[in-house]
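Form 7-S
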Amino acid sequence: MSEIDAALRAEFAPTGTLRIGLNMSNFLLTRIDAATGTPAGVAHDLGQELARRLGLPVAMHPFPNPGAVSDAVAKDQWDVCFLAAEPKRAEVIDFTSAYVEIEATYLLPPGSSLRHAEEIDAKGIRIIAPNRAAYELYLTRTLKHASLIREPGADASFKRFVEEKFDALAGLRPRLASDQEKLEGSHIAQGHFTAVQQAAGIPKGRPRAAKYLSDYIEDVRSSGLVAKAIADNKIVGLSIAAKG
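Output:
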């Protein structure tokens, strides 16, 4: 790890407080603590540990969805974020390697003859996905035959999936498991179309801080601190990412 000095702290936190940007729509990594009404979860815990190591005060800045986190970099609203690494976002954010990954696949409606994720990209198939989620951006880049409709948020996407009888709902496997319970006869596709890589990020133009952040993520992943945060928050559905 790099030496921590006043210059590094100033690069990380120009305001004097380390502002952590959290995507509150990812329930595997973030949540609102019922007792305090404040952000909590795996990403919160990793942000707190980073601030502790740097010797900086910390402030959690919750955002409703990943698109809002990404947009906020241009408004200087956070110093470090915990967000899925994705090429479009990487134009303005320097990402670390991933610390966890989450399978993205499809929920299929009652009566669907489709079974495997690889079958979904076919002519005439209509897929709905939450707008600007990492896996939606992936599908936008990679789908060749199916049509993709975007809806703000996972809840709205599921509602429209049911009401308008889409052929598939794209999402993270743990979220789709909860949606499946609400729709009798539905099933989750076998396999997955991508594994979303969850990383930490910092606005471009902070090279020393970016290097320290990358080393930090490597350390907390390899030392077991990420696994501990997952266990402490009782999360199921996260896999520790392979070494970057």
